[in-house]
Design brief:
Layout (H helix, E strand, L loop, with lengths): L1 H4 L2 H29 L2 E2 L7 E2 L3 H8 L1 H32 L7 H13 L2 H12 L5 H8 L15 H26 L3 H9 L4 H12 L1 H16 L3 H6 L11 H11 L3 H25 L8
Antiparallel strand pairs: 1-2
Helix pairs in contact: 2-14, 3-14, 4-8, 4-11, 4-13, 5-8, 8-11, 11-14, 13-14
């Protein structure tokens, strides 16, 4: 095996198919997006080369600034809820003293496999101002509080982000639970001998050892928030007004509603750069020597 690993021709033969597929499916479309972003183009005829005018226009577009802000808000909500609650659920289910652990594993993962349309329709009912679960619960508890969650400029983007966080929380739960199960049991036995409780053991042992898993989950949550589209499209259609726009929604609106494909490509190019920068920053921030056990 070592002989084959040193053979550059063999390495090229095995990696070339993957590189070709990656180039055709991922790399080439990205290059085309950056290229088309420099055109005033309606998606059908021949475009007019305008160089960086679409990017200059983006910088002056108030919707673009709203989209950047909403993407960051979405990413923050996903990171906090998905990783935070996913960690709590994973730690709870990993406890062998907990009854019904297998049932809970399946239950927590069910939202991930549901259609996003079904999930959004469910939460539209929960958020409903007249008969929604949240407002009715407030009413039953005696609070004189009624909120139209998706029509408020202050709460709409957070309400939509919570839906996405709830649906894909099970994915992070599964990743963290698998990582917890892979940890050596002797570390926890030593902690119990030293008198550490479950909470202290998780804080001192489990969380530090899940460093790489948390980095991966954070990248997924942040890039997922920056790429958010379907939830806004189904639940708010970018509204009220333009307060729930993200870069993906701006890209969709520009390309398919007002036939400004060049402008939409410019928004897509900025999104690619934003996700790339977020990934680089997270990797740089979480860089340390790998722990072996």
């Amino acid at each position: 095996m070592y002989k084959y690993l040193r053979n550059k021709v063999a390495i090229l033969i095995f990696t070339l198919p993957a590189l070709i597929v990656f180039s055709v499916i991922v790399f080439y479309p990205i290059i085309q997006t950056f290229y088309k972003s420099m055109f005033d183009w309606n998606g059908l005829g021949k475009g007019t080369f305008i160089f960086l005018d679409n990017y200059k226009r983006l910088l002056k577009d108030s919707i673009f600034h709203i989209s950047i802000r909403n993407g960051l808000i979405f990413a923050a909500v996903l990171a906090v809820l998905q990783i935070g609650i996913g960690t709590f659920l994973a730690f709870a289910v990993s406890d062998i003293a907990l009854k019904g652990r297998n049932f809970l594993r399946i239950t927590y993962f069910i939202p991930v496999v549901l259609s996003i349309t079904v999930v959004c329709q469910l939460w539209l009912s929960i958020y409903n101002e007249e008969f929604g679960l949240i407002n009715k619960l407030m009413e039953q508890l005696g609070f004189l509080y009624r909120q139209n969650w998706l029509s408020s400029e202050k709460s709409a983007i957070y309400a939509v982000a919570v839906v996405n966080a709830w649906q894909y929380m099970g994915y992070h739960f599964a990743l963290i639970l698998a990582a917890v199960k892979s940890l050596p049991e002797q570390y926890f036995e030593a902690a119990r001998i030293d008198g550490a409780g479950k909470i202290k053991a998780h804080i001192s042992i489990t969380i530090p050892l899940l460093y790489e898993t948390y980095k991966f989950c954070l990248i997924l949550a942040v890039t997922g928030g920056l790429n958010a589209f379907a939830n806004m499209y189904i639940m708010t259609n970018g509204g009220p007004g333009d307060v729930t726009y993200t870069l993906t929604f701006l890209m969709y609106r520009s390309a398919f509603r007002v036939n400004e494909f060049g402008y939409g490509c410019a928004a897509a190019a900025v999104l690619v750069i934003e996700c790339l920068l977020a990934t680089i920053i997270i990797n740089k921030s979480f860089r340390r020597k790998q722990i072996t056990y």
